[in-house]
Amino acid sequence: MTISDPIADMLTRIRNGQAVHKKSVSCPSSTMRCRILDVLKQEGYIDSYTVNKKDDPKKPTIVIELRYHKQQGVIQEIKRISTPGCRVYAKIKDLRKVYGGLGVAILSTSQGILSDHDARKKGVGGEIICQVF
Q1: Which tens digit of pLDDT belongs to each residue from 53-89?
Q2: Checking CA distances to 72, which of 13, 29, 47, 111 falls within 20 to 30 Å?
Q3: Is 12 exposed, middle or buried (CB count within 10 Å of its CB: 0-12, 13-18, 19+)?
Q4: Domains in the chain, ordered, with CATH?
Q5: Entry pTM
């Protein structure tokens, strides 16, 4: 089975895992997914993630440790913005805050995968991958 949008697949696995209060979820590994998870960890939405190459070195998987606060998932909403069929780009001046600054947008910029806070500090825009609240 081929996945047409691997990032949306990962976000859905996180959303579904938190809905049923799983401690962790797994998905196939890629560099882009790891960079997105770095931002989610930095912003405090997940506890950690590990790349597991032991089972099959040719097809490594990522195990994502989900974060909860008072038996509620820290992630209230996680939404894919830019899709393979409809890319969404924003200049830094056009980049809107997610829920008045309470959430975070994850962008693919010329300086790598960044949160909207870091993108504003560095003064770069890019493709809006997803929004998390």
Answers
A1: 887 878 999 999 999 999 999 999 999 999 999 999 9
A2: 29
A3: middle
A4: 6-73 (3.30.1370.30), 78-132 (3.30.1490.10)
A5: 0.93
